Amino acid sequence: PPEQAPEARVFLEVQQTTASAPTERIFDGWMFASSPGLNALDNPIYDIWPISCVDKAPEPSDEGAAKPAG
């Protein structure tokens, strides 16, 4: 509904890399700020909680800028 704030959500792919073992994917899925337990990361070391969303506009690139003659 328009009167409700938009849902903060994030799709995560979390990989764990150690010197003694190959890279292991420990989480792959969506997390929602309003329902952190819905699809939680179950790991004894890491605890990830989405708390907010920041929408940043991309930085303008220098590729289209005019180059000085000479």
Q: How would you characterize this protein structure?
A:
This protein is mainly β. The protein has one domain. Helix content is 0%, strand content 31%. β1 (9-18) and β2 (21-32) form a beta hairpin. The protein is flat, with a radius of gyration of 20 Å. The model has no long low-confidence stretch (mean pLDDT 78). InterPro entries: DUF2155. It comes from Tistrella mobilis.
Strand % is: 25-35%
Pick out the low-confidence regions.
none
Q: Care to count the β-strands?
A: 2
Termini Cα gap: 58 Å
Give the overall shape, derived from the CA principal axes. Answer: flat
Distinct helical segment count: 0
**Main β-sheet description:** 2 strands, antiparallel
* Total of domains: 1
Strand order of the largest sheet: 1-2
Structural class: mainly beta
Taken in chain order, the helices and strands follow as EE
pLDDT average, as an integer? 78
Indicate the radius of gyration in whole angstroms: 20 Å
Helical coverage, percent range: under 10%
Helix and strand layout, with pairings?
Blueprint: E1 9-18, E2 21-32
Antiparallel strand pairs: 1-2
List keywords for this structure.
70 residues; mainly beta; two-stranded antiparallel ribbon; flat; DUF2155 domain-containing protein; DUF2155
